[in-house]
Amino acid sequence: MGKDVIVACDFDRASEMFDFLDLFRDEKPFLKIGMELFYEEGSFIVRELKRRGHKLFLDLKIHDIPNTVRKTMMVLSRMEIDICDVHASGGVRMMEGALEGITRLDGKRPLLIGVTQLTSTDQEMLENELLIRMPIKDVVMHYAQNVKKAGLDGIVCSPHEAAEVHKKFGKRFITVTPGIRFADSEIGDQRRIMTPAQAKEVGSDYIVVGRPITQAKDPVAAYRRCCKEFIDKPKTKVTKKK
Ligand code: C5P
Prior knowledge:
Elements: E1 4-9, H1 14-21, E2 30-34, H2 35-41, H3 43-51, E3 56-62, H4 66-76, E4 83-87, H5 92-102, E5 111-115, H6 123-128, H7 136-149, E6 154-156, H8 159-169, E7 174-177, H9 196-201, E8 206-209, H10 211-214, H11 219-230
Helix pairs in contact: 4-5, 7-8
The structure holds cytidine-5'-monophosphate.
């Protein structure tokens, strides 16, 4: 399992996505697309990004009853994605359903990870809005335990939890960490943040970086800076020409 920077492409039109990708000449970043682009463009966008040679995290954060999740994951299993996710708060049975659905007949499947607590959630919100009166770290660790029990590959969590997650669940249980900001960039709505270099220190496997790259004056330079801080050099080199 290699370390990599995943660029969160929170665009809602394919044309914006392609304009952004056209800036990259020498690298093929690992991309994450989310609900807004997928709901607008559907499976076309997945096929097109794969055709262009990108690795892809389809971040739909699925959460429903186990049967619906299993059937939804069967649909996703027909797409060539590399990572997909469900909300761990859906429970162990739901996650087991997700794993069953995403696994193709030949046994192959993308990485399947569980979202523990969103990095925009802080202790106050957890207690006052969600009525979960426990330290956020304990909640994340408990959800991680459920993710592991269901047989998934790892979790999405804040980089602040990555070291403890690896200590408790092992190095092979992967941590995908959003909430990444350069020391000199805007925090926005994120709460529990770290720089790419700090995320490397604590052992994150993948960092997910959105606005610090997509909204930068020079997105390619920002992507390179991330890679330099987190992995020294870009992992996902050009594989196919558009
Ligand atoms: O722009 P920014 O770097 O904050 O983007 C972070 C990305 O990671 C967004 O696409 C957001 O949906 C996603 N994410 C998150 N926290 C989670 C899971 C996913 O911020 N726990």
